[in-house]
Description:
By secondary structure, the chain is an alpha+beta fold. It has helices at about 1-20, 60-70, 95-105, 125-130, 135, 170-175, and strands at about 30, 35-40, 45-50, 75-85, 150, 160.
Amino acid sequence: MKQIIFAMALLVAASTLSAQEKGFYDFTVKSITGQDFPLSSLKGKKVLVVNVASKCGLTPQYTQLQELYDKYGPDKFVIVGFPANNFGSQEPGTNEEIQEFCRANYGVTFPMMKKISVKGDDIHPLYKWLTQKSGNGKQDAEVTWNFQKFMIDENGNWAGFAVPKTLPTSEDVTGWIEGKTK
């Protein structure tokens, strides 16, 4: 009986480890222009992953995101924006339209990726990793609206998240970048 219990415990431990084998740097996403963007290219940098939308009440956060990138990036910190149309159809545009909107209205220079789904049956694998403890090894963190921010440390570890209404320039985010919190 002890052997059976031990074997079952090993199986549970092995399945937990295998679920967490894929790390942040193992993902390759598509840039907004369609090029492969291996997240491994961000090794050594803190990364703020944000799902964004052009027609949302929180869209003005693009201003603070760009301010953050101008202040801390791009050598040790980077923002990666993922347009998503999951909430109220607030990102209806094509990738080309989104890119032009971000440049023209907010002067965005941080990396923007191709539009994806951040929740639901068609959730992008990266967001599945970001939002599920079984992937990120830390905690479940469902995306609740546009502009949710996920913090990834310079070693590719999930370090936390900030809810959509938390401004990118808040102490929660800047303190993490500066190594004062999280």
